[in-house]
Amino acid sequence: MAEADASIFAAMPAVEERAAADAGALDALLQGARTPFVIRDLVREWPLVQAGLASASAARAYLVERARPVPFAVSLGQPGKDGRLFYGADMEMNFREARGKLADIFGGMDANEGRADAPAIYLGSIDVPTHFTTVAAENAIDLGSREPIVSLWIGTPTRIAAHNDFPDNLACCAAGRRRFTLFPPDQFANLHLGPIDNTPAGRAVSMVDFHAPDLDLHPRFAEALTHAQVAVLEPGDALFIPSMWWHHVEGLAPFNILMNYWWRDTPRWLGQPQDALNHAILSIRDLPAEDKAVWRALFDYYVFENGPEVTAHIPEGGRGILDPLDPAAAGRLRSFLLRTLSK
């Protein structure tokens, strides 16, 4: 991949680096963390990292030997492009999706290696236990009581538009090099986000091309850059990305592997905030301004402020979903919503 205008990244401060000598130290760093940090060499001893340090082919062989006989989803970019998996001019995706055996996908990488017109080949969010036998156990991090989702991201040089995720994320570079450009959650408007319902991978993304920002089209991006941080991960390095932080991700080497751990501190039986946003667009956004003002006040009262005055006057045992939710109450509320949305 041709390197971007280096000035945009050189001017950014580096993400803070921290150290974790053992699982207890790592747990202490993660407890309540709300800003990103890098831990160098956290997973340097992983067998997958060691294979990647030997060669890209050794890393691919390591994974193929442990791949389950299931199809792998892969994104295939257009030949001769710069690895940016994004929208085309028609707002359709500029890549196609396919499925195949991991060995065959890696064979395509081998066949295209070194070609100037090679297409981007990218396997994103591959669930590790579903797709591999011993990879998770052999390349593990002790995250204490957290129950993470473990995923692999594998590809040739790629550029993934800035987006955010609801869970916390510990991203570990297993092979190649990754550059992350990060922005605090409140910078969403300055990133000029695209559609919510038509996205490359399920989350709204920044429409800004970080390799060639058009400040006439995206003028607020200049302000976003004043809040940006950058981290370049080498094999064995890890980056903590707090929930809702925006991150633009680049695979800088000919072959790149990232293993990440997603978890949320809230129970999994709680709903997804994105679903609430989508429902609010359906039911509130296009109301008259006076009605929206009333609903804004109701949301503040019941959801965002949620003070003791909401329930103090209601007898205990009769507060319904105004009481703190438990799995049973959450299940009843979800069933109620499904019934109402299906009408």
Automatic annotation (TrEMBL):
Pfam families: Cupin_8
Record InterPro entries: Cupin_8, JmjC_dom, RmlC-like_jellyroll
SUPFAM superfamilies for the chain: Clavaminate synthase-like
Domain of life: Bacteria
SMART domains per UniProt: JmjC
Domain JmjC: 117-278
Entries under PROSITE patterns matching the protein: JMJC
PANTHER family recorded: HYPOXIA-INDUCIBLE FACTOR 1 ALPHA INHIBITOR-RELATED (PTHR12461), HYPOXIA-INDUCIBLE FACTOR 1-ALPHA INHIBITOR (PTHR12461:SF105)
Protein name: Cupin
